[in-house]
Amino acid sequence: MRRLRCGLLLVLLGVVLAGCGSKAPRKLHEKEGGFSYDPPAGWQVKEMPGQKYRIAFGPTENGLAPNINVMTDTASMDLDEYLDKGLETMKRTGTISSEPSRQRFATEDGEKGYYWTFDYTMLNHALRARQYFFEKGDRKYVFTCTTSADTGAALDPVFEASAKSFRLD
Question: pLDDT tens digits for 148-166?
Answer without folding.
Answer: 998 888 999 999 999 999 9
